[in-house]
Automatic annotation (TrEMBL), chain A:
Protein name: ABC transporter permease
Compartmental location: Cell membrane
Topological category with respect to the lipid bilayer: Multi-pass membrane protein
Residues spanning the membrane: 6-32, 68-88, 97-115, 146-164, 196-217, 272-291
One Pfam assignment: BPD_transp_2
Cellular-component GO terms for this entry: plasma membrane
A molecular function (GO) term: transmembrane transporter activity
Keyword set, alphabetical order: Cell membrane, Membrane, Transmembrane, Transmembrane helix
TrEMBL record, chain B:
Record carries keyword Transmembrane helix: no
Pfam families reported in the protein's UniProt record: ABC_tran
The UniProt record lists the keyword Metal-binding: no
Annotated organism of origin: Petrachloros mirabilis ULC683
Coiled-coil regions listed: none
Lineage top rank: taxon: Bacteria
Protein name as catalogued: ATP-binding cassette domain-containing protein
Keyword list, A-Z: ATP-binding, Nucleotide-binding
Domain spans labelled ABC transporter: 19-254, 272-516
InterPro entries (alphabetical): AAA+_ATPase (IPR003593), ABC_carbohydrate_import_ATPase (IPR050107), ABC_transporter-like_ATP-bd (IPR003439), ABC_transporter-like_CS (IPR017871), P-loop_NTPase (IPR027417)
UniProt GO MF annotations: ATP binding; ATP hydrolysis activity
UniProt-listed SUPFAM superfamilies: P-loop containing nucleoside triphosphate hydrolases
């Protein structure tokens, strides 16, 4: 790597690059989960959706030689899993979290099973936008290769904010998630709104999977997600269910993930595994900081996780 | 489109429609909730619908709004018989209802809630235009609520105003209010009703209000219609009626407590002492505001009051379901914190309201539920670890027999039993101990039939006669007058009236219940 040429400056650069690379799946999954949770349902199964998306994107990209077909296919695969989750969780006396865990196992199982033949071959990757052309330094250029999926995610955050504020459907989603009784009194179909929110959220998570296998790290393996889908769920809580804050939180998690490799690149190998564990430690720390037996977290949709 | 609509509403001053209910009957199974009831709401008047709990007021307005379909009778709007099948139909005839509970979405702002409540909204909301229209609407509205504040941050009074505004925003000309002031302070209530009164006087609105509070009726209403036990009990102009007339219409003749056999106890000592107790409601508002009382052994202390004045929270604190924020509870002069050990030591037993939710494990069997107090002690348990199932079954069989619990078997889940039998199961468990000292009962006969009520009253009296101290919280004044030795009235989290049953003054009790 050319990072040595920059010395210590390479660390912030590597973290910035890692933030945008590693943050993309967090961003897409957390925006999807944000939409889902705003409607009052939790979808823990996005971890499985992420893996299925990653596998589907890689396989379709390899088979059709078109990475964008892979991205679309990943989204569609996510929607199928989302539909199953939405249908199951809206049955009487079915618990969101239990179904979510089942969907993690189902989604990853499907991905591993169908993905076996695609571990070896290499699929065409998504073209990146080179924003580092102004610099002569190769490592700067390398760091500023941005995925179009990251750009999509960044644009999606304000779009979702606008959706929740200024569209009829956005108001419906929030009403259903916060006060189903009030929504019913206004003649809104709770089942329909939740179904669409969960399916749309899973579409985004599927695309998040595509960014794993077609951009960074850009391979398909069974350990590609390493719990990022679950962390994204925690991240939504951290972001207080605000899409824009999901963006910031995703960048933070992406950066935390890049810490270990960045330090390693300048030769600091002590505590490598400890630094690699940074995102997990961050998740735990957030959970501890935000829990309280006496009060609800501000911003939480009122009906989140209740059984109606 | 929106601007033109808003424009119309304040240029043409429409007279509100005339609403008549003619000989309406509504049955739920064997229960006749409404029996041949008529009501006439004249345009531009403030009309009160009075009656005790369960008199059929809510059923009547729900029939008008199209939630229920009446078995007989007509709703007549502007001299035409109308079929109203849903609140949306009612909205078409200009009738809007404000419910007892809030129907706004807490996380949304006032403006968002108003726009959301509209039946026709465009897919994209032009907030600039909407806010302009809402500002214009607010200028002519009877009261103002800040548009950009999230509903969760509004005080109860403002939330109630928003509920009413929502109906006016939807162009309701007849407003039906279901106990709109039950969650408000007297000041808030006066403000809301006063401003509505002005709008009515201007001839822009008719109001039909369900209320218990005579003060509000005499201050704001023109006319009343009274229901009693599902039947029409009278109507008249408020200016021709005194409070005594109205309460007599509501409760029927002044009823004396039926003679019941009460033994006199020579020596009584205080069992339960509550000192300056404070507690919060679920939403953090004050439920108990420095409540103090004492219950002696061998007496029944009755607490009367309209629901929502802190009774539920009081019983929850005593049962250990809710923490007290201040004050203390003494049982046998020792501090009592409702732990299982203390309940056992002081022999405290509770018969809470909604027993299936508060005192049973619905999926567990009748036998297991009957053993909830005793399963960890001999003879039902060895060393507090091993359960002796034979003893549990034996005791259950005995109790099922003595308390006449109708259940297919002792193994049936208690949730499968009827309300009366669930109540009996809990009563059996709570009264089975030989050495019971304190019994706390809340609305023990709610929703039960006559025979079950007599039975449960008998059990409570028998306990009292065995020198048990009984705290009886009830919304049924007759029940209290029959059973209690002393009667108190709870209002806004404290006791506002107390008297021995012999000297209890019916009119004063009614007035203090209504917040006088």
């Amino acid at each position: 790597m050319a990072t040595e040429a920059l010395g210590w400056l390479g660390v912030p650069l590597a973290i910035a690059a890692g933030t945008m690379r590693g943050g993309t799946p967090f961003l897409l999954v957390s925006l999807g989960e944000c939409l889902t949770e705003k409607s009052g349902k939790i979808n823990l199964g996005l971890e499985g959706t992420l893996l299925t998306g990653a596998m589907t994107a890689y396989a379709v990209s390899y088979l059709t030689q078109s990475p964008w077909s892979g991205v679309i296919a990943a989204g569609l695969a996510g929607m199928v899993l989302g539909f199953i989750h939405a249908w199951l969780t809206q049955q009487p006396r079915v618990n969101d979290v239990a179904v979510g865990i089942a969907m993690i196992i189902f989604g990853s199982g499907i991905a591993f099973f169908l993905g076996k033949p695609f571990i070896q071959p290499s699929a065409p990757q998504l073209a990146t936008l080179a924003l580092g052309g102004w610099s002569a330094n190769a490592s700067v250029q390398e760091a500023l290769r941005i995925s179009p999926l990251f750009i999509i995610g960044v644009l999606l955050a304000p779009t979702l904010t606008w959706f929740f504020k200024s569209t009829r459907w956005g108001l419906f989603v929030r009403a259903v998630g916060d006060s189903p009784d009030a929504a019913l009194a206004m003649g809104i179909s709770i089942a329909k709104v939740r179904m669409l929110s969960i399916v749309a959220g899973s579409f985004l998570a599927g695309i998040g999977g595509a960014s794993l296998s077609l951009y960074y790290p850009g391979i398909w393996s069974e350990r590609i997600s390493s719990g990022q889908g679950l962390m994204a769920v925690a991240l939504v809580i951290f972001a207080r269910w605000q899409p824009i804050q999901c963006l910031y939180a995703s960048l933070l998690f992406g950066g935390a993930q890049a810490l270990g490799p960045a330090l390693q690149s300048i030769g600091i190998t002590q505590g490598y595994y400890l630094f690699n564990a940074a995102p997990y430690i961050l998740t735990l720390a957030i959970m501890i900081a935000t829990c309280s037996p006496n009060r609800k977290i501000s911003g939480a949709p009122g009906a989140l996780g209740t059984s109606n | 489109m929106n601007t033109t609509l808003t424009h119309q509403s304040h240029t043409e001053v429409l007279v509100p429609p005339e609403l008549e209910v003619v000989r309406m009957t509504k049955k739920f199974g064997h229960l006749t909730a409404l029996d041949d009831v008529s009501l006439h709401l004249r345009p531009g008047t403030f009309h009160a619908l009075l009656g005790e709990n369960g008199a059929g007021k809510s059923t009547l307005v729900k029939c008008i709004m199209g939630f229920y379909r009446p078995d007989h009778g007509d709703v007549i709007v502007d001299r035409h018989s109308r079929t109203i099948d849903s609140p949306r139909d009612a909205h078409r005839y200009g009738i809007g209802m404000v419910y007892q509970h809030f129907t706004s979405v807490p996380a949304m702002t006032v403006a968002e809630n108003l726009v959301l409540s509209r039946y026709e909204t465009s897919n994209f909301i032009n907030w600039k235009q909407e806010l302009q229209a809402l500002d214009t609407f607010m200028e002519t509205a009877p009261f103002q609520v800040p548009l950009s504040t999230p509903v969760s941050q509004l005080a109860a009074g403002q939330k109630q105003k928003l509920e009413i505004l929502k109906q006016i925003y939807l162009k309701a000309r007849i407003l039906i209010l279901d106990e709109p002031t039950s969650v408000l302070t007297p000041q808030e209530a006066d403000e809301v009703l006063g401003l509505l009164r002005e709008t009515v006087t201007q001839g822009r609105l008719s109001v039909l209000i369900i209320s218990h509070k005579f003060r509000e009726v005499t201050a704001f209403c023109d006319e009343i219609t009274v229901l009693r036990k599902g039947k029409f009990a009278g109507t008249g102009l408020v200016k021709n009626l005194s409070i005594a007339d109205m309460s007599e219409m509501m409760m029927g003749e002044r009823r004396q407590p039926k003679p019941v056999h009460k033994t006199t106890h020579l020596q009584q000592n205080p069992i339960l002492q509550i000192q300056q107790l404070h507690a919060h409601k679920d939403n953090g508002a004050e439920a108990l505001a420095g409540l103090s009382l004492t219950v002696q052994s061998g007496e029944i202390l009755g607490i009367a009051g309209i629901s929502g004045n802190g009774q539920r929270e009081l019983v929850e604190v005593l049962a250990g379901q809710r923490p007290a924020t201040q004050g203390q509870i003494l049982v046998n002069s020792e501090v009592y914190r409702s732990t299982r050990a203390e309940m056992y030591r002081h022999r405290v037993y509770t018969l809470p309201e909604e027993p299936l939710r508060n005192a049973c494990v619905p999926h567990m069997s009748v036998a297991e539920n009957l053993a909830l107090r005793t399963f960890d002690r001999p003879p039902q348990s060895k060393a507090g670890v091993w359960l002796v199932l034979k003893m549990i079954r034996q005791m259950a069989a005995g109790l099922i027999d003595t308390f006449k619990i109708k259940t297919p078997s002792a193994e049936t889940p208690v949730g499968n039993l009827s309300g009366g039998n669930v109540q009996r199961t809990v009563l059996a468990r709570e009264l089975s101990s030989e050495r019971i000292q304190l019994l706390i009962a809340a609305n023990p006969c709610f929703g039960l039939d006559f025979a079950a009520v007599e039975d449960i009253h008998g059990q409570i009296l028998a306990a009292r006669n065995q020198n048990v101290a009984v705290l009886l919280v009830s919304e049924d004044l007759d029940e209290l007058l029959k059973l209690a030795d002393r009667i108190t009235v709870m209002s806004e989290g404290r006791l506002v009236y107390e008297s021995a049953i012999a000297e209890a003054d019916f009119a004063t009790i009614g007035r203090s219940m209504a917040g006088h």
